[in-house]
Amino acid sequence: MAEEDITGIIKRSLVAGSIAGCSVDLSLYPIDTIKTRLQQKKSLTRGFLFSSLYSGVGSVLIGSGPSSALFFTAYNLSKQTIQFSSQWQTHMTAATLGEICACLIRVPVEVVKQRAQVNRNLSLLTITRSCFQNEGLFGLYRGYFATVTREIPFSIIQFPLWELFKEYWSTKQGYPVAPWQGALCGSISGGIAASITTPLDVAKTRIMLAHHSDIDAASNSFTVMKNIVKNEGFTAGVLPRTMWISIGGLIYFGAFEYVTSLFFSKKT
């Protein structure tokens, strides 16, 4: 592949991915806060569930853009450089590599964000300092493997479906999909992926929110899921998560497709 092509892919992925990540996370942050609070172990009052819904939003402002940009960079480069006989396999592999890279930024952001969402009186700086004092750097990466365990199945469902739906729509109408059509494809594929992977999301949230002395803090996703199934089932947060991802897919992929078509369609 020519150097210019690689440069174009990187520029498009960084710019469009960053804008897409910030757009969806900021606009739907209150729903994410409700989902996180529903998934924690503590019993909730209605007043707490719907109060201070933007607690911890500063962490998203810092990390959402870079993590999304890193994902799309790895995803798009992988699609071009790793080719299988099946496009489905290529897209799944690219999504997997994209998530592994993106989680290097996403996990510390998630740890701080989710603790702020359930401890609304604590500042982001206080939460970050507490992580370092009690657990060291590992504290900010607690739940990394749980997050990757959740994100990889989610992405290998969502992104191949997104690509498939776009290809089908494009073939049916005889020309490439418009940004709004790509956004709708992303919304549908995201909703499907979200409903299937909610159990992994619940486990990831419990690990990140657990006190460092709690058994869940050192547990893996499968152990936590087993305990949740035994005691509670997997209904916690399923509706907010599915709604959040479905609407979020519309915004996320819509922003990505729009920025790509607006600034890069003639260059790449």
UniProtKB/TrEMBL annotation:
Keyword field contains Membrane: yes
Which stretches are transmembrane? 243-264
- What keywords sit in the KW lines? Membrane, Repeat, Transmembrane, Transmembrane helix, Transport
Q: How does it sit in the membrane?
A: Multi-pass membrane protein
For whether the record's keyword set contains DNA repair, the answer is no
Intervals holding Solcar repeats: 8-81, 86-168, 181-262
Q: Where in the cell is it found?
A: Membrane
What's the superkingdom here?
Eukaryota
State the GO CC annotations: membrane
* Family listed: Belongs to the mitochondrial carrier (TC 2.A.29) family.
For this protein, the record's PANTHER family field holds: S-ADENOSYLMETHIONINE MITOCHONDRIAL CARRIER PROTEIN
The name of this protein is S-adenosylmethionine mitochondrial carrier protein
